[in-house]
Amino acid sequence: MRIPEIVKKPDEKFPIGFKYISPDLEEGATIASCTVTISPSEVGGLAVDGNPVVEADKVSQTVQAGKDGSEYYVTFKVTTSGGHIYEDKIFVKVRA
Known about the structure:
Blueprint: E1 5-8, E2 13-19, E3 31-39, E4 46-54, E5 58-65, E6 71-80, E7 85-94
Parallel strand pairs: 1-7
Antiparallel strand pairs: 2-5, 3-6, 4-5, 6-7
């Protein structure tokens, strides 16, 4: 599986996320829940702002901060109304 990659500046703050389509999201199913974690977790590192936003077929999380020159994995753990669980990552590079 290919992991999406984004580059952000330390002062930027914006949402990132995923849209789920068939066959991952069955017809009539929705996203029931989502949790987001960032690795590595460090003081002054990349951080979430607020809770994940869950829509019928999309999840997003606003991210902020991060140390210049550092790299992070933002992991979305999604559970669908059909009981499927997916774990997807976005690779975030912080560059001034």
